[in-house]
Amino acid sequence: MTVAFKKDEVIALLGAGASVQANIPASQGMIAKIEDLLSDQWSRYRDLYYFIRSAIQFADGIKGRFDTGFNVEQLVGTLDDLRLGDRHPLFPFIGAWVPKLFEVAGPDLSTATEFRNLIVRQLRDDWVQLKYREDAAYYSGFSSFQRELQDPLRLFSLNYDLCVESTISDATIERGFNENKKWDWRLFDEGRIDPPDIYLYKLHGSIDWTNDDSEQLEYLDAI
């Protein structure tokens, strides 16, 4: 029996494990890789990592959450906040930094910046890179489904990888960037006279996104 769906009645959400079959590790797998590196090449950041991880888990425990996981987004997000130091918007409301922080992150928190940049570089250049397009061939099923749907498919992704963009070649994909490669939310407007086959919403960002000199979001052809 064929089921007819109304326009925008169907959306698809890609979670953290969607690209594991394409040999892109999930967040927990990336934490395992970081911990392997901390035992060798990244050993100078080990104490900082232990401090951040234990602090996050301590905060969860205060709220009664003792079974929460620890993922790479929490780690990088915390390093992003810490490296701002007195430039963080919440700094005026903080009575004092924990003394241990300066011991493990350096007096100017530069170690936090170094560690954060190392992780992001590893994510961008290795862990989140699709090495073989055929590994993600299963993503092409979205274009087949869209043809059956006969309306634009709204595809939401929590992942940074380029599996959708790299493997779906028989459908037009709108990512929200204009001809100058600058972000333009109006490209997702419902009133378009030439709608694409797939609207792709990357809620957490993408490895090929960056900010230009004026802090406007743009994408890069090569990463």
Q: How would you portray this structure in words?
A:
The structure is a single chain. With 223 residues, this protein is of the alpha/beta class. It has helices at 27-38, 46-62, 72-84, 99-105, 110-127, 141-149, 163-167; strands at residues 11-14, 153-157, 173-174, 198-202, 209-211, 217-219. The strands form two sheets. The chain has a four-stranded parallel sheet, with helices on one face. A hairpin with a 5-residue loop joins β5 and β6. The longest helix has 18 residues, at 110-127.
Brief overview:
With 223 residues, the chain is an alpha/beta fold. The protein is built from seven helices and six strands; from the N terminus they run βααααααβαββββ.
Keywords:
two-stranded antiparallel sheet; 10% strand; elongated; alpha/beta; four-stranded parallel beta sheet; 223 residues; single chain
- Structural Rg: 21 Å
Fraction of residues in H or I helices: 25-40%
Shape: elongated
Determine the mean pLDDT: 90
What's the total number of strands? 6
- Compute the number of helices: 7
Content of β-strand: 5-15%
Please report the distance between the alpha carbons of the first and last residues: 45 Å
Strand order across the biggest sheet?
Answer: 1-2-4-3
Give start-end ranges of low-pLDDT stretches: none
Structural class: alpha/beta
Order of helices and strands: EHHHHHHEHEEEE
Biggest β-sheet: count, sense, barrel? 4 strands, parallel
